[in-house]
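Possible regression after last week's pipeline update?

I re-ran a chain I had predicted before the update to compare outputs. Posting the input and the new output here so someone can diff against the archived version. Not blocking, just want to make sure nothing changed silently.
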Amino acid sequence: QVQLVESGGGLVQPGGSLRLSCATSGFTFSGTPITWARQGPGKGLEWVATIYHDGYTRTADSVKDRFTGSRDNPQNTVHLQMGSLKPEDTAVYYCLKGIGIDGTRGQGTQVTVSS
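New output (post-update):
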């Protein structure tokens, strides 16, 4: 059974940082890209980043140079390091199996950027 569990969200001030984690199980992690997506208040699901099997990360223009991805293949875990956070980054963040925003996803973790 494919499972993804996000953690690390919380309340942070503008300009602050957070590190999200996604623990996975039930599939061959090492060869599988993992995608991060987010859903802000009243908005649809938005692609944020995809972390490929070798750690190469593609990021959306809206988070480029602020968010970086990494993965720990032995631990079947990916991370999303978020910096210079803005109020518009407020959203529920999900990790998804594969490329794109249509794959199996976790329950999400809330990130709130506010002073």
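Follow-up from reviewer: compared with the archived run. The longest strand covers residues 18-25. Marking as no regression found.
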